[in-house]
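Ticket #4471: complex job returned nothing on first submit. Input attached below:
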Amino acid sequence: MQFTGAHILSIDQFSQDDVEHLFQVADAMEPFARRALRTRVLDGAILSNLFFEPSTRTRVSFGCAFNLLGGHVRETTEIKASSISKGESLYDTARVISGYSDIIAMRHPVAGSVEEFARASRVPVINAGDGPAEHPSQALLDLYTIRKELRIDGPLEKLRIAMVGDLKHGRTVHSLGKLLCLYRNIHFTLVSPRELAMPAYIVDLLRSKGHTVSETDSMEAGLHNCDTVYLTRIQEERFVNQAEADLYRGRFRLNQAIYTQHCKPNTVIMHPLPRDSRAEANELDNDLNQHPSLAIFRQTDNGVLVRMALFALTLGVADQVARHVEEVPWYTAKRFRNPPPL
Amino acid sequence: MQFTGAHILSIDQFSQDDVEHLFQVADAMEPFARRALRTRVLDGAILSNLFFEPSTRTRVSFGCAFNLLGGHVRETTEIKASSISKGESLYDTARVISGYSDIIAMRHPVAGSVEEFARASRVPVINAGDGPAEHPSQALLDLYTIRKELRIDGPLEKLRIAMVGDLKHGRTVHSLGKLLCLYRNIHFTLVSPRELAMPAYIVDLLRSKGHTVSETDSMEAGLHNCDTVYLTRIQEERFVNQAEADLYRGRFRLNQAIYTQHCKPNTVIMHPLPRDSRAEANELDNDLNQHPSLAIFRQTDNGVLVRMALFALTLGVADQVARHVEEVPWYTAKRFRNPPPL
Amino acid sequence: MQFTGAHILSIDQFSQDDVEHLFQVADAMEPFARRALRTRVLDGAILSNLFFEPSTRTRVSFGCAFNLLGGHVRETTEIKASSISKGESLYDTARVISGYSDIIAMRHPVAGSVEEFARASRVPVINAGDGPAEHPSQALLDLYTIRKELRIDGPLEKLRIAMVGDLKHGRTVHSLGKLLCLYRNIHFTLVSPRELAMPAYIVDLLRSKGHTVSETDSMEAGLHNCDTVYLTRIQEERFVNQAEADLYRGRFRLNQAIYTQHCKPNTVIMHPLPRDSRAEANELDNDLNQHPSLAIFRQTDNGVLVRMALFALTLGVADQVARHVEEVPWYTAKRFRNPPPL
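Support reply: We reran it on our side without changes. The output follows.
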């Protein structure tokens, strides 16, 4: 892929080389994210954060990544509050907003809408999630995290990953599955209620690429011998009604006792967040918060690196970052310290 | 007008010389808006974008214009979420917010409220729309666009303009009409349902300045021989109820076939946006999206230039912009390319 | 207190020396806030403004203070729009957002929630109000204002202050009372309806520190001979129902006539804002807007100085501000001019 000027809409755009290239750039962003240094390479550039569906974490992550490169961020978060409610088409919104911006990160509840928007945009568009469809930067940060946690240098192979929960609606597991197709000899264990199973087209895709897939509705069985367990929330906002979602909430729960009994030591624990910590759900228990293999907050930290890399590459400044470097004069000592006890 | 330190509240403040001066400054902003260069002249300055009524386009345009000059933007978009709902007066809000800001752009649903606010403000206030009353930067960008599209250098004369749609509620046509009074020998064709006609005081004003005005409820007749057609949306939010607005939506529609049959070649097509592209309205059809005379997105692009000029002039830095110029290191190639096919 | 790296959660953290130190730094911020100079000491730093309860004034004040030091601001204002509504714990939100930020200002409707959040945060957290509990920067700016208005250099003593209104729910009077405990020989006159009296534990605290306290439900009596009158709004959002709040609105009202009759000359008039200017409340009448002793807008101006000082101290750059100073090229003449007549 030619990154410069590209829209980042789907994991399908990425070759293995593209991923390796992106991750090298993400590695180079680390001193800026942990505040050893600061850079002004995008000083004066404007990101439009266009969120037609709420997402604090993803929105702030994109905004922060752009600020870390020196740029300005203009945000729109109110869908009803916007011209859309006056009958404006995505085409018009894209033509207009792209005249105000150097790059756009966009989330929308409708699958395909970000691509439709991007076709009319005059600046690169990064898909920050289009309903149940794609969320490419999430899949990339997940893979980046897996490799960092497992200390894999270069392409990963022979990974054993368990995906647990609402595999039907969870776009992060769809995208991560597709992204892992770029690599070899991966074993997927898919743990879900039968009704929330991974869509067949994705299972078929994984198998067609030579990976092995086993499906189960027993979490304990699924955890056996995996390197990484990737938990997900029941995506209640994608269900027709709350009552149906309630049937599944709390079905699978990982906690300290189950981890100790069923996982091999150092199994990496991941979750795309937010995790549902209410008693009736609690798919990932707080009693694991201090566990060294709990990678969920390193995941969100890595998200900043990956998004900085996407901005730097699509705006063509990845090789210029070092030319705009300065010292950080302010206090940063606790930034990446270990979590305090609850 | 002495621009430096002035509030920009109404088109009535502008003389012909003021407009010419503003447009020269706007011209000088073009390299920054299209990213040939960047400037830091307002680095460290703070714009408060105070929107008591939603408007994605106008809000982002003001914010982007300020960022392009190097400044910070602080936004308030939630009217219910604000102190106003606790009984705070506009006077108090103005005293407080003007202590936090170097300049304020404000939109409010009530006519006259921005002026009331400005009287108490300690920093310049730009009216970004006060209900049905004024929206001076829109009128200025419209006039700037007309001149650019018609390649007029210097004061315009003998323009033939058709205004179409909800001329009763559309503040953009009111303001543009008043602004055009500064020039000579203009022919206005006002196309609207009789019930949504241009207010009599504006028609009288136009005539008193020596312009000719014809009114009709036939769009086809109105399009005849004009240089510019300015379409508007039925302003449904200004109607007492939706049913009444629905009576008029879709009454006038410009599309490729009607344009070809009734307009002379190169008639400039304008619209203040958002255009209502829903089937029941569709006042400006998407089949004209690739038409070279469709100026609606050049209009919004020009809005950034005009707002940059307003900021630079009211903050007294118009002649200092060039002293803070730097290269743009990032990718900008597609920024102003032609629109892609739908 | 060691300011660098500290969370600022409560007035209880402050010794008299801490307050004196903070106020010296606040004094040094004045040239930047009134735009004689600008500084870039926090250029590249990121403040997360995390407001789980609306507050235009406090939110913009924190954001502006950070911009004045050169930093970026990322905002989250939509509580329902956030991960919280998907069951995310404060612990998770804190772990995630602190990975995106150099410092966080947080408001939340629930007492104690900011402290809970801060325990999990990897960067300093400033409490911008947690429900009925604490709002330390407000108490600090109030004390800073009292001293400036009364032209007191160094620790204040023998102050006579009247607090008026909803002393039960008003956290600003609670915090200010506690903060004044650091000083000596203060006389408090507490004016409220009996049902909205200052909580007994605060009255006991004041007395235990050697201060004198008198309580009354007559405002006229309470105003007698005080140096400062601190008015408050009926905090209707803290009442069980609107009807109960309505019982008390409008009970105490200060206006020009009452001031002239009952206050000694130069009595400083303060209010934490917003003041409720609706006819049925109007606790502080607009006929005092031009009175030289009306300090309410100098209070909000001072809030910027105090918040700049808190940022500079917690981020450890208070002694580096002067190293990043530049001229201000834009118009600032009206910024601190006297209020115009209504």
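The domain at 137-297 of chain B is CATH 3.40.50.1370 (Rossmann fold). Closing as resolved unless it happens again.
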